[in-house]
Amino acid sequence: MTCTHADGTPRRSSTCADFSEMPWLFSTPQAPESSFRPVIHGGVMFYAGVDVGGSGTRAELCSGSRRLGEGRAGSGNLGTVGHTGSLRVVVEAVAAAFRAAGLEPSLRETRVHAGIAGLGRLEDCALLLALPHPFRRLTVESDAHLTLRAAYPSGEGTILLCGTGALALRRIAAGQEVRAGGWGFPLERGGGAWLGMEGLRLGLEAIESGQHTALATAMQRRFLGIDGAIRWTRTAKASSYAGLVPDVLAAAKQGDQEAARLLTSWSSELMGLLGRINAMQGPWTVWGGLSRAVLDYAPPEWLERYQPMAERPLGAALKTAQLPH
Questions:
Q1: Which of 223, 287, 303, 315 has the fewest beta carbons under 10 Å from its own?
Q2: Strands 137-142 vs 110-116: parallel, antiparallel or unpaired
Q3: Phi-psi region of 159 (alpha: psi -120 to 50; beta: other; left: phi over 0)
Q4: 33 three-state secondary structure
Q5: Residue 273 and residue 192: Cα distance in Å, rounded?
Q6: What is the pTM of this model?
Q7: Cβ(245)–Cβ(259) under 8 Å?
Q8: Sign of the CA dihedral with 6 first, then 10, 12, and 17 last
Q9: DSSP-assigned letter for residue 190
Q10: pLDDT digits (tens, 9 = 90+) for 221-242
Q11: Which residues, including other chains, have CB under 8 Å from residue 149's CB and lie 6 or more apart?
């Protein structure tokens, strides 16, 4: 097998895995030998699966069938932190998993597979492929494809990813896929960033009108007034807005009618995403930081067809990391 970048140019690595039957999978070159000092634990090979999201990153480490530890790192959405930033959080999360297992990081002896939020375009894959890394092997795919494989290892099905952003992905006959959303904040509607921004707007409107709603109280407490909120927005990122969602959910539970209407509207946006890929029939599932809230506000006719995930994305990532060369 000839190893090339997405543009057809040869990769610099001397060896690569044969993933010709997995077009969603991309392999990146190794870092030069002199760029790090590995700590080898008796020649043991380690494997790590990584789920890179807009609000945080998780890695799970194993050796053979033995689970060793789990590590966390910050936001790694490629559209927000860039290619180098996404790769950095992968390295940080895997190193943290080693430390959680009571081991010094031995990245040189680790094969890693990562599902990365925001990794959806060929040009982004090519840029990521060009970056060196300290692992024995690194393969990547979008977090959406990783989750779809975890939910439906074979056959048709639909996933709704809802965390900082929102995306619907459906596998139909003959392995074909259709998707909706996933444009990134502020373009898309329905993600946690959008919901948090709308909640902030409603809270500020209530403050300005002199209404003492639960949402107004929460935003007043958080920002000490409208001016404080305006200053905050000058540096706020998508994950920052998504961090406001707990205030919206809590306000609705406290009887705030505006917050409740917002959540109903949010659910409609998400069901609209599913509708745009003709997912009105067949099974669907949801994954992401807001999955519990999605199910709380989904219409009954959608809940009837909901199926829990067959496997966690991290589990699917670990299995992929263990694929042979």
A1: 303
A2: parallel
A3: beta
A4: helix
A5: 14
A6: 0.78
A7: no
A8: positive
A9: S
A10: 999 999 999 999 999 999 899 9
A11: 316
